[in-house]
Amino acid sequence: MSNYRYLRQFKQDELLFDEDETRIILKFIFKPVDHELIDSLPMSDSLRGFTQGLLLEAIDASYAVGYVRGIFESAANPQKGAIEIIKSFGRKASRHWFKNASVHDLQNVKIYNFIIDEIAARFRVVLMDFLAVIEINKSLGAFLSYKVPSQGIVRRWG
């Protein structure tokens, strides 16, 4: 079953990522086919807030899944820069932003790949809107359905 989820909106003083960190997080969430697009996006507070909202959703949804254990955790982590930023975000983020992650969880943030894949698929069209320099003045949301894969490998970042 899927639920319609709105991304949290942030005031300018709540934005934690600079331009470089924003692009790293977007590349962590979206597939390599979108990385060139991400590099060409004009940076704005709206894009920074969108990125922060995506990351917040990914962290919170990963903790809502519960005690799912990854069969495999990548030892050769191609997203090392993103992981460092994510862990820093967990330490700096306001605790009231999260519904499912506790203060203890935020000290060692973990995000599941199937969560990132769902978020990337549902919010890719919004990413394209930023390229078109469409001013987004509304709450962004999507139908999200997080299902733990019954087969294959469940990867966890963090």
List keywords for this structure.
158 residues, 6 helices, two-stranded antiparallel ribbon, single chain, 46% helix, 4 strands, globular, mainly alpha
Structural notes for this entry:
With 158 residues, the chain is mostly helical. Helices cover 46% and strands 8% of the residues. It has helices at 19-29, 35-40, 45-64, 80-92, 103-106, 113-131; strands spanning 3-6, 111-112, 141-144, 156-157. It is globular. The model is unreliable at 67-78 (pLDDT under 50).
**Neighbour order of strands in the largest sheet:** 1-3
Helix content: 40-55%
Gap between N and C termini? 27 Å
How many distinct helices? 6
**Alpha-beta classification:** mainly alpha
Q: Mean pLDDT, as a whole number?
A: 77
Total strands: the figure is 4
The value of Rg in angstroms is 15 Å
Q: Can you tell me the residue ranges where pLDDT is under 50 for at least 5 consecutive residues? A: 67-78
Count of the domains: 1
Structure in a nutshell:
Helix content is 46%, strand content 8%. The chain is mainly alpha-helical.
